[in-house]
UniProtKB/TrEMBL annotation, chains A, B:
Native source species: Rhodoplanes tepidamans (Rhodoplanes cryptolactis)
Domain of life: Bacteria
InterPro entries: 3-oxoacid_CoA-transf_B, CoA_trans_fam_I, CoA_transf_AS, NagB/RpiA_transferase-like
Matches recorded under Gene3D superfamilies: Glutaconate Coenzyme A-transferase
Pfam families, A to Z: CoA_trans
Family: Belongs to the 3-oxoacid CoA-transferase subunit B family.
Protein name per UniProt: 3-oxoacid CoA-transferase subunit B
Keywords: Transferase
From TrEMBL, chains C, D:
InterPro entries: 3-oxoacid_CoA-transf_A (IPR012792), CoA_trans_fam_I (IPR004165), CoA_transf_BS (IPR004163), NagB/RpiA_transferase-like (IPR037171)
Lineage: Bacteria, Pseudomonadati, Pseudomonadota, Alphaproteobacteria, Hyphomicrobiales
Entry-linked PROSITE patterns: COA_TRANSF_1
Keyword Transferase belongs to the record: yes
Gene3D superfamilies listed in its UniProt record: Glutaconate Coenzyme A-transferase
Organism domain of life: Bacteria
Record's keyword terms, sorted: Transferase
Listed name of the protein: CoA transferase subunit A
Amino acid sequence: MDEKTIIAKRVAQELKDGNLVNLGIGLPTLVTKYLPAGIQVFFQSENGVIGMQPLPEPGVAADALTDAGGTPTSIIPGAGAFDSVTSFCLIRGGHLDVTVLGGLQVDEAGQLANWMVPGKMVPGMGGAMDLVSGAKRVIVAMTHTAKGAPKILKKCNLPLTSVRRVDLVVTELAVIQPTDEGLVLLEVADGVTVEQVVAATEARLIVPATVPTMQLAA
Amino acid sequence: MDEKTIIAKRVAQELKDGNLVNLGIGLPTLVTKYLPAGIQVFFQSENGVIGMQPLPEPGVAADALTDAGGTPTSIIPGAGAFDSVTSFCLIRGGHLDVTVLGGLQVDEAGQLANWMVPGKMVPGMGGAMDLVSGAKRVIVAMTHTAKGAPKILKKCNLPLTSVRRVDLVVTELAVIQPTDEGLVLLEVADGVTVEQVVAATEARLIVPATVPTMQLAA
Amino acid sequence: MSKVTALEQAVAKIPDGATLMIGGFMGVGSPHRLIDELVRQGRKDLTIIANDTARPGVDIGKLIRAGAVKRLVASHIGLNPETQKQMIDGQIEVELVPQGTLAERIRAGGAGLGGVLTATGVGTTVAEGKQTIDVKGKTFLVEEPLRADFALISAWRADYYGNLSYELTARNFNPVMALAADTVIAEAGEIVPVGLIPPDQVETVSVVVDHLVARSN
Amino acid sequence: MSKVTALEQAVAKIPDGATLMIGGFMGVGSPHRLIDELVRQGRKDLTIIANDTARPGVDIGKLIRAGAVKRLVASHIGLNPETQKQMIDGQIEVELVPQGTLAERIRAGGAGLGGVLTATGVGTTVAEGKQTIDVKGKTFLVEEPLRADFALISAWRADYYGNLSYELTARNFNPVMALAADTVIAEAGEIVPVGLIPPDQVETVSVVVDHLVARSN
């Protein structure tokens, strides 16, 4: 199983029946493929729709129905469309149960940086700052390291997305929960040791006596 | 011609082609009957519609289409409906060309009091405070006196509706324009002398050398 | 995932002393059945946030007449002398709020905003006791957000998920209140199969609605 | 009272140096014809307020490539490296605004509100140089309203008065921008007789629209 699949499958387990969920562009969108059976999750796309789902077949793309990256998408029966103002009322107002976002860095305070690398890459924050400020639960889905360098640091050195502490970090190596005491190692991936996770992490990890292995469907 | 008809006919002359206009409950609603020929005015009802007009015939009232007093109304082709938030975006945001409101008192500063008499009558301000704060032009349509007592005073002694200076006051006796210098007597009604208007007014009136007579259609 | 709930059960979730937002404007677009059931169940000490209290004994006026209301936040009570009398007699505490400010305060509560900056009310009795702030050289009142334990709203059509559409001036405060309460109970004139309301005509999205009651049995 | 205006004439009203709001989200729901005509007429020194600049050479990206933009207020330029390059090279001044804050600032400009109180951005670089205010013990940024000389928007259907309806995710910033500019120029896929758009499906009311251009000739 490749890195992205591990992350997407593990994140999918966090979604509950009836949840309103926003998925960031890129890795997080893979999550839709691995939803647990028998639950109904409503996906919001920040550009103005609840009930988004991937295009079911070729040839049915429409100019006026796309995801936040501009890619044609489709909707479930019972979907609702709205403008950008309403979209962010839902996001900022605490109506969103879960947001799943990519990350450049997360630190011991559980703070996330994911919107710019000064002087190099200035994509802008898009909806990320509102999503992190407003969602009931913020899950960061990212690779544990970038070109071998840890992304989970003592202190973020890139500009923060929000001062709000995120709720869960899922990587291909581990599941980590930011708490008042610091980052708690909740799970390690199959075949990965606690020592390997600690070695790939700059931040101090709180390691419980037993750390279970991620349980993923095949 | 009775007092109310004089006032309504004179106010109607202030409305221009294409204007968006809000009419307060009571006397101001009479204005719709006397619009100049050949102009199209869009009437907003604060409870959520632009394009309101009186019911054209008995038997076509609908529960879901009423004016701000709860009375069944009808709409022109090209009407638009919206919620209370949007209604007041239009009002507060300067999209309303004219509002015509009733008044309890107007003073030398051109300030209006029209929403309560402490201890006696507490109707509440409804939309009046937003209308006076936000409309491009505020016209007060009221009788010149109440039980013989002047309503145009040196200083309002009832709670103000807004500190904004209104643009025009139309009574059955006169048309008065609040300005930086004070209240200017623009017109007197047919058969009314300047002296009669001054006698019925507590506030100081600025009286130009010639004061024309209101010109009203029969 | 149907949200349809029996009238009695839905209203039984509301305890005495609760804060309720109730949609409607002079009774138009109010959840009449939910109001009647609140009265029937004898609920009391309620705080009501609504545009108005309609007319005596009508619509929200039924709650006033029943003595169920302890506190009222509204923009206009001019057409209900019973509310004015209870206010002057000290039976009901009434906070009068300019209508546009009321709409925005409810919106701020639902949109996660810290408050509303408005020029409406500056220099009037409405400004008493409130923070002001200068932005670009102009003074604005800081009006605080409003939220409620329950929103009782009325829609024209619903689907079973709870997507709602409204009709003309019966819309008024209903959509904004649906975003500003912990629990949303909607009364609908018609409940239709999921998928029947075109997405562009969904004005309240299903995810914010908790319980759905049909207007008639 | 038809608002229909020829494309060339409508766009000719926009002077060099003007501030424009342009609807759309990654090119979806943008006024493509108006943008093309701005480029054709060689407009320059524009300030653009928009969610994004789409992709290189596409939609608003055409204005970027043409060097027509002096200043940009947007939430996301990640999919247009040309915009990022012009920003880093100092050719365009870019103000990046969180998307929800951008929407609310435009809304405040159109709704006559003094600003937006939001927790989004508190403690980040977005907060630099901005007023904050405490409401009920929580700190919020005071974000100022945005207005423009012109709003260039795109609708699905219009009637001749200028009532507009939108379609799905092509709606995005169009309705809010229609309220926040001195002059509103709308491009519509279809212009239908007055009365054909049901009042409940009018999302932008005619009175705020100044000029109407058909999407195709």
